Amino acid sequence: MRAALKTADGRFQVTEVERPIIPTGDFVLARVRVAGICGTDLRHWNKAEPELECHIVGHELAGEVVEVGADVTNLKPGDRVVIETVMGDGVCPYCRIQRYNICEHLYDVRTKYVSRAYGEFVCGPQSKFYPLPDHVSFEEAALIDTFSVCLHAHHRAGVGVNQKIAIIGAGPIGLGQLQLAKLSGADVLIVDRVASSLELATKLGADVVVDTSKGEDVLERVLAFAGERGADVCFECAGGESMAETLPLATKLARRGGKVVVVGGFDAGELSIPLEWQRIQMSEIEIVMSASFAFHDIYPEQGMVLQLLADGKLDAASLITHRFDLDHINDAFETADAKETTGAVFVAITIS
Fold first, then answer.
1. DSSP string covering 232-284, please?
2. Which residues are in the Enoyl reductase (ER) domain (predicted)?
3. In terms of residue numbers, what domain contains 28?
4. What is the CATH number for 133?
């Protein structure tokens, strides 16, 4: 099959590689139709990382079933599917209680099977393949992973009716967080420095947008928005290199007794970020970490998002700003990375 492999300098080379095969009876082989680019992918873009060289990456994808194992009961060749890429080892204590998102072997397992979106085929257990309704496009379905990350953070936050929510970052995660908060009856303020992203946030229902590129005072705007107390919940959805600024800001935007939910990703290794720990403690501000997604009670969060999208309660189509084919994957990443000039939000890549 054709796939985009990571190169020594962190870009991609499209080449022929071996197609995956079904290893056991409960596995499914699918042809990838559309993959996406998220913030995690961008943090690894154009960066020399020997551990990723010659690997297939990508974890936002939808496609079509090609072959099923003998024990597969709910899928058949030709079925349209969205593929969950959060996959643990299945045997550890966390996997046994459906918290596989914090499995110690998560990365090793998921990258061996389902987390290989930038190749023509992927293979994984049937539980990771969700039938896709005909009226949901492959492009829209590629955003289900993003929205599932948002839903997990939403559950961790316990967002409620009439709460005042602040969101730092108006990328796909922040815009997904916005939609879920509005569905729950909350009021939402969102912060970013990209005007086109904030325009989209307004379209999706944001009550207040704050453009930091114009020198707007974020804390002042949040206090005015939230009755001079601060936000009930502040979601940090920027992550990466900006975390040294955005995490301290998030703790300043949360009210006494409020929550900061960290959704944006960190880079590997130790990172020192000074915080006003005394004020955070004396205010009993909770800092809640949120990682990927798994189950909420008895329900798989990816399945919940699929239902919300199918029912028209989430808007994925408006987030898709650019489209490329696999041969132009480097152009796709350059476009996504330069969002301040390109206006990119979610960049979709047609794989096959």
1. EEEEE---GGGHHHHHHHHHHHEEEEEEEEE-SPPPSS-------HHHHHHTT
2. 10-347
3. 2-143+316-350
4. 3.90.180.10
Q: In this structure, are 130 and 199 located in the same domain?
A: no
pTM of the model: 0.97
Whether 197 and 138 map to the same domain: the answer is no
pLDDT tens readout for residues 135-178: 999 999 999 999 999 999 999 999 999 999 999 999 999 999 99
248-272 pLDDT, tens per residue?
999 999 999 999 999 999 988 899 9
Cα-Cα-Cα-Cα torsion 322, 323, 329, 331, nearest 10 degrees, comes to -50
Q: Would you call 32 exposed, middle or buried from its count of C-beta atoms within 10 A (0-12, 13-18, 19+)?
A: buried
Angle formed by the axes of helices 301-310 and 144-157, to 10°?
Answer: 110
Q: Are 254 and 261 a contacting pair, CB within 8 Å?
A: no
**What residues contact residue 318 under an 8 Å CB cut-off, 6+ apart?**
200, 203, 204
SS3 content of the chain, % helix, strand, coil (to 5): 35, 25, 40
How distant is the alpha carbon of residue 326 from its chain centre?
21
